[in-house]
């Protein structure tokens, strides 16, 4: 029996070229016209059911697959590229970045390391992140999937360096005393997962009370460190947050750096939201002291609007960074020249094979320049102030917390309703705005009060968009209150 040799390459390159051209044309229109579509819409059951089919045994033509994407996928996005999406804390992506992801996949290179152009760009982008945050060029750093992974990298280096033992060889069971990490009670949930994955346990992460401004209370931090020392525990690391998820509060980085220096603790900054304020002339002062940290986690897929995913971990002491992850199996031995020469990039983290996520960041930074990204951050800050003022001026709308950066916490409160009813009312407003596709905000609870939360981290948002949000929340609130009164 003779086999026809097979390949994944198209049998007809010209036919594939035509489909690819259509995809690019449609993509340009899709992004250009995003404002004319709803932010989000629910998938009809027939669309949803098609995603439950099993793995196809035989292939089908690419144009048919693309037709399914056009009908079943493109109309049902999460919504974060829309100008009126302000949920959680996301980026709004950008077209050039999307081209970067496409070209990265075309090149197909593995960024585990080796001597090739993509590896140079990966290292260059990490160096740019150091420049942006004021870190020294000789610091260590790596691009990872996002902020959660960037924090895990920084905290792992902190654990190993501060452990006082050969932790890689002996493991946490050999620690002479349990290690303690400190973060405020506003800390992002990824840090709990990090300390758990690091084998230290959730209890190793002490939540230090925050003050009235939702910043870590520094006298409480002092107290916690002293208590732990007295109890025979090992205070090891303070995790300062530059921009909390709830309210955007920025811990006092200078003071925390002083405390860490005095106490001999590692300072890690979770800068997933706020580290990039350092590139905004009017934002820089908010994160003064960030470069004093021993490690920083930041998130280019948030305030640089890179398409998901890309995060970045920076570690001041490159030797400590390498020392936490570097291994040299015989099959990854370097060579004096050729593809396997040069430093391995996988030595700075947990992945061996790595994607070329640097390219989308590199292209967008080259196209727009750093100054424009700084201005866009200031634009978000100005937009958040505008929204804050509009809320304050609108009857029945209440600001729930002073706006620190670009996160606005507010709610509809006609007065006289019990707290549980206010929560129910605002949850319904939030969900209806999503279902009608007008705007997307999320919710949270700050200081025991439920509120809507708009994270204005979106280069497509205009003041008009925020005015629409204010009007719509007020309108829906009034409608819902009258419905309940009638019903
Ligand atoms: C978003 C965020 C994270 C997690 O980052 P991902 O990119 O979602 O993994 C961690 N900390 C803070 C403060 C964040 O805002």
Q: Label the CATH architecture of the largest domain.
A: 3-Layer(aba) Sandwich
Strand content: 5-15%
Query: How would you spell out the order of helices and strands?
Result: HHHHHEHHEHEHEHEEHEHHHEEHEEH
Terminal CA distance reads: 76 Å
CATH superfamily of the largest domain: Type I PLP-dependent aspartate aminotransferase-like (Major domain)
CATH class of the largest domain: Alpha Beta
Number of strands: 11
Shape: globular
Helix content: 40-55%
**Content-based structural category:** alpha/beta
CATH topology of the largest domain: Aspartate Aminotransferase, domain 2
Cofactors and ligands:
pyridoxal-5'-phosphate
How big is the Rg? 25 Å
Q: What is the number of helical segments per DSSP (H or I, 4+ residues)?
A: 16
- Report low-confidence residues grouped into runs of 5 or more: none
Largest sheet: 7 strands, mixed
How many structural domains does the protein architecture include?
3
Explain this structure.
The chain has 487 residues and is α/β, with parallel strands linked by helices. It has three domains: 66 residues; 271 residues, Aspartate Aminotransferase, domain 2; 116 residues, Aspartate Aminotransferase, domain 1 (Alpha-Beta Complex), CATH 3.90.1150. Helix content is 43%, strand content 12%. It has 16 helices and eleven strands. The strands form two sheets. The protein has a seven-stranded mixed beta sheet with strand order 1-7-6-5-4-2-3, with helices on both faces. Strands 8-9-11-10 form a four-stranded antiparallel beta sheet, with helices on one face. Helix 8 links the parallel strand 2 and strand 3. Helix 15 packs across helix 16. It is globular and about 75 Å long. The termini are far apart. Bound molecules: pyridoxal-5'-phosphate (PLP). The site of pyridoxal-5'-phosphate has 15 residues, from helix 6.
């Amino acid at each position: 029996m003779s086999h026809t040799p097979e390949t994944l390459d198209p049998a007809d390159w010209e036919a594939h070229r035509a489909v690819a051209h259509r995809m690019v044309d449609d993509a340009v229109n899709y992004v250009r016209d995003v404002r004319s579509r709803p932010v989000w819409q629910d998938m009809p059951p027939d669309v949803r059911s098609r995603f439950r089919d099993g793995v196809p045994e035989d292939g089908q033509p690419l144009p048919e697959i693309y037709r399914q994407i056009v009908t079943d996928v493109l109309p049902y996005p999460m919504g974060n590229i829309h100008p009126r999406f302000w949920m959680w804390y996301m980026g709004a992506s950008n077209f050039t970045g999307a081209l970067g992801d496409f070209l990265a996949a075309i090149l197909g290179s593995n960024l585990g390391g080796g001597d090739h152009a993509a590896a140079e760009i990966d290292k260059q982008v990490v160096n740019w992140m150091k420049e942006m945050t004021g870190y020294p060029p000789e610091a260590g750093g790596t691009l990872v999937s996002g902020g959660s992974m960037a924090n895990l990298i920084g905290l792992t280096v902190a654990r190993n360096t501060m452990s006082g033992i050969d932790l890689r060889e002996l493991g946490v069971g050999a620690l002479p005393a349990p290690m303690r990490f400190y973060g405020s009670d506003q800390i992002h949930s990824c840090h709990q997962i990090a300390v758990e994955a690091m084998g230290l346990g959730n209890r190793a992460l002490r939540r230090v009370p925050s003050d009235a401004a939702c910043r870590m209370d520094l006298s409480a931090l002092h107290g916690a460190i002293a208590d732990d020392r007295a109890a025979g525990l090992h205070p090891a690391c303070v995790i300062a947050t530059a921009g909390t998820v709830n309210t955007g509060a920025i811990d006092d980085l200078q003071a925390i750096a002083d405390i860490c220096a005095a106490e001999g603790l590692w300072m890690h900054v979770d800068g997933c939201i706020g580290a990039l304020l350092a590139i905004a002339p009017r934002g820089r002062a908010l994160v003064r002291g960030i470069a004093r940290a021993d490690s920083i986690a930041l998130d280019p897929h948030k305030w640089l609007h890179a398409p998901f995913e890309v995060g970045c971990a920076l570690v001041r002491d490159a030797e400590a960074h390498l020392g936490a992850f570097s291994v040299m199996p015989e099959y990854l031995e370097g060579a004096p020249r050729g593809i396997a020469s040069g430093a391995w990039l996988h030595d700075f983290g947990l992945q061996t094979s790595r994607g070329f996520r640097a390219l989308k960041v590199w292209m967008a930074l080259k196209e727009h320049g750093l100054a424009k990204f700084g201005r866009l951050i200031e634009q978000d800050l100005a937009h958040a102030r505008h929204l804050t003022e509009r809320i304050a001026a609108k009857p029945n709308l209440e600001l729930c917390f002073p706006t620190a950066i670009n996160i606005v916490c507010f709610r509809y409160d006609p007065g006289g309703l019990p707290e549980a009813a206010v929560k129910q009312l605002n949850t319904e407003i939030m969900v209806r705005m999503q279902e009608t596709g007008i705007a997307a905000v999320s919710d949270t609870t700050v200081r025991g009060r439920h509120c809507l939360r708009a994270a204005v981290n979106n280069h497509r948002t205009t003041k008009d968009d925020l005015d629409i949000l204010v009007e719509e929340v007020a309108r829906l609130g009034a409608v819902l209150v009258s419905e309940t009164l009638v019903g």
